[in-house]
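User: Thanks for the earlier help. One more: NYN domain-containing protein. Can you show the sequence and predicted structure together?

Assistant: Of course, both are below.
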Amino acid sequence: MHKRYGRIAIFIDGSNLYHTVRDLGVHIDYKRILEYFSRDGILLRAFYYTALLEDRTPDWLIRLTDWLSYNGYVVITKQARTFRRRYVDDSGQTHTVSETKGNIDIELAIDMLSLAPYYDTAILFSGDGDFVRLVEAVQRLGVRVVVVSSERTRENMVSDDLRRQADEFIDLADIAEHIMMQGQE
């Protein structure tokens, strides 16, 4: 039986997906994501990337990453860092603010590129425009890229450039019934 995606690898930008589904009001069943995409391809690996906050990581995120690691996902985490930044406002006053940074884009990019020879289709759950060059690079290696995000959120969660670069774009709202928790309306 021929599967249109061939061998697939799933790459989930956890933070981006979290904000997208929260805006759509959907609760994702991560096991159903694997089942949904396995219908049209042979699943090789599924990755979930997220930053963890120093001493402030929410319990739900700890439970989710633990569950994912036991249920078919490779979980890649990175410790977010909090730092203080000083800036001068328009009136000349100096202010200090705390900022937290925990970007996992590089980890996702390295994995997607280094594994490209082993899969035919990358399923990228993200709308982050920073991934446009990554998508171009894996496409040059012969990989088909499917971007999954949404244009139906309050703040459009998908970069227009990323959507255009993808071989296929799937709006999360269109497949929500197939990947959301059972019993959710």
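User: Great, one quick takeaway?

Assistant: The longest helix spans residues 59-70.
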